[in-house]
């Protein structure tokens, strides 16, 4: 009896990863509209990066829009200082506290004053008569980058910053040349500022430039201050 032999067929082993790739290729060929995983990933990352970039630009623009700064003046010492804070541009709500620092050097402020505020030139301050008894205030000079007019204190700052013929500060030089008239002018200006009567200052400074006697000047200044105080609103 002839023995029967059985032929064993050996199938080659395959890598499971290859099988998956083959299967995905077959499904893609059967359905060309099916989304591809790798292609989807390549499309998602640019969208994410664009979104992050856009939000960063908007956040930076909002942060810059919240910044508010300006200059204010002390009603007793006439010091100027810079203030800054952050405010929501949509609601006007202040965000955080107010910071103060010294402004850039300008002609009639001395460079050796308080490190956080510039004080008045000694040529002017030497003629003051003590300190006002009214409560001290910090009055607005101006808000930076604002279309609105300056605050009341800007009247005083604009007057004193007026340049002289040699492009120097006019009023400190005038005070040195006319010490007797300066002794009348600056106490009167001090009183008006202490009572928040900045609008009376232009007339006062005009009186100082008139060519009249010291007695006439002193009398006209006294009457001007008296009338202004009589019309001033009472606290």
Mean pLDDT: 77
Which structural class best describes the helix and strand composition? Answer: alpha+beta
Q: Which of globular, elongated, flat, extended, rod-shaped describes the shape?
A: elongated
Number of strands: 4
Estimate the helix proportion, in percent.
Answer: 40-55%
- The SSE order reads HHEEEHEHHHHH
User: How much beta, percentage-wise?
Assistant: 5-15%
**Which parts are unreliable, with pLDDT below 50 for 5 consecutive residues or more?**
none
Helix count from the secondary structure assignment: 8
Number of domains: 2
Q: What's the gyration radius in Å?
A: 39 Å
Describe this structure in words.
There is one protein chain. This protein has a four-stranded antiparallel β-sheet with strand order 3-2-1-4. A hairpin with a 5-residue loop joins strand 1 and strand 2 (80-87). It has two domains: 36-65; 66-231, no CATH class. By secondary structure, the protein is α+β, with helices and mostly antiparallel strands. It is built from eight helices and four strands.
Index terms:
four-stranded antiparallel β-sheet; alpha+beta; 2 domains; 45% helix; 235 residues; 4 strands; elongated; 8 helices
Could you write a compact summary of the structure shown?
This protein is an alpha+beta fold and 235 residues long. It has helices spanning 16-30, 37-65, 122-125, 153-160, 170-177, 179-194, 201-208, 214-231; strands at residues 67-74, 80-87, 94-101, 138-143.
């Amino acid at each position: 009896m002839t023995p029967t032999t059985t032929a064993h067929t050996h199938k080659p082993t395959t890598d499971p990863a290859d099988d998956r790739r083959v299967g995905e290729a077959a499904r893609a060929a059967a359905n060309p509209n099916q989304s591809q995983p790798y292609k989807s990933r390549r499309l998602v990352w640019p969208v994410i990066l664009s979104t992050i970039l856009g939000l960063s630009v908007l956040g930076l623009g909002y942060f810059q829009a919240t910044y508010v700064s300006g200059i204010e003046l002390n009603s007793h010492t006439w010091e100027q200082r810079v203030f800054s804070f952050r405010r929501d541009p949509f609601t006007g709500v202040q965000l955080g506290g107010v910071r103060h620092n010294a402004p850039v050097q300008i002609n009639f402020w001395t460079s050796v004053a308080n490190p956080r505020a510039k004080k008045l030139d000694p040529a002017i301050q030497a003629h003051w008569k003590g300190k006002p008894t009214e409560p001290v205030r910090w009055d607005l000079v101006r808000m930076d980058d604002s279309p609105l007019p300056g605050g009341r204190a800007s009247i005083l700052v604009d007057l004193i910053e007026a340049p002289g013929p040699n492009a120097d500060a006019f009023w400190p030089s005038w005070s040195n040349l006319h010490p007797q008239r300066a002794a009348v002018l600056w106490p009167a200006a001090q009183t008006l500022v202490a009572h928040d009567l900045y609008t009376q200052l232009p007339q006062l400074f005009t009186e100082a430039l008139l060519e009249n006697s010291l007695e006439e000047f002193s009398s006209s200044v006294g009457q001007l201050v008296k009338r202004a105080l009589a019309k001033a609103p009472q606290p």
